Sequence to fold (169 residues):
Amino acid sequence: MVREISAGGAVVRQMDDSWWMAAIELPAEQSTPNRSKRAVRTKNKAVVCLPKGLVDPGEKPLDAALREVREETGITAVPVVKLTDIKYMYIRNWGDGERVFKIVSFYLLRYQSGEIDNISKEMRIEVARALWLKLEDAPKLLAYKGEKQVARQALEFVGAHPSLESGAG
Fold:
């Protein structure tokens, strides 16, 4: 069984007296890594998720999370705390059809700079758009069960730490 290690960010920002979370919407047809097949969206419903991706060889998960956030959303962020590891299995729907055990480390990050959705043309293969979601609505709007839980954890952390100091974790 193949193992994959990924990392992602739950980026939060306070605007207009509310907390917001950065998210991405996947393209209607998303290319798989070898682009031999396409994963097609079901029911014409937008797939909204958190920015995340594979940890490169020699890269630390936190660094990968910060890189993926920058590449997929156009914003930069600073770490606050590690929220959780999500673990699951899937079967590749391209190439070898191999079973994969995946671990995704998610970090709570605080927005630092940049304009959401200011991403490269090449990244549009992976991201249709990046957007801000109201943090309180994110658990309902995100597509994946594990990421809904990440949003709930972020909401709980922000509620308990309204000043949201960075650097822990």
Summary: The beta strands are 2-15, 18-25, 29-31, 38-40, 48-49, 52-54, 75-91, 99-114, 129-134. The CA atoms of residues 9 and 107 lie 5 Å apart. The first strand starts at residue 2 and ends at 15. The two ends are 31 Å apart (CA to CA).
